[in-house]
Design goal:
The chain is α+β, with helices and mostly antiparallel strands. Helix content is about 45%, strand content about 25%. The protein has a domain of about 40 residues. A two-stranded antiparallel sheet has the order 1-2.
């Protein structure tokens, strides 16, 4: 469901008005994805699962589609 946000307009340091704008579901999902990337990158150490999540998120952000099933080489 889209979210309504507001741009605040100031004049001489005083709030004059708040103009609404709509943020689409796609933009909200993108923001959540970017927040997860920032959180994972900021960690000093990550588990293998977190490394995999980070790789998947970055690949998705760059437009790459990774295979759904991971192949584990032994």
């Amino acid at each position: 469901m889209p979210e309504i946000r507001y741009t605040e307009i100031y004049k001489n340091g005083f709030l004059i008005t708040r103009e609404p704008y709509e943020v689409s579901d796609e933009e909200l999902a993108q923001e959540a994805q970017e927040a997860r990337i920032v959180k994972l990158v900021a960690k000093l150490s990550r588990t293998s699962a977190e490394d995999s999540q980070l790789i998947d998120l970055l690949a998705s952000k760059l437009g790459y589609e990774l295979p759904k099933k991971k192949i584990i080489l032994k």
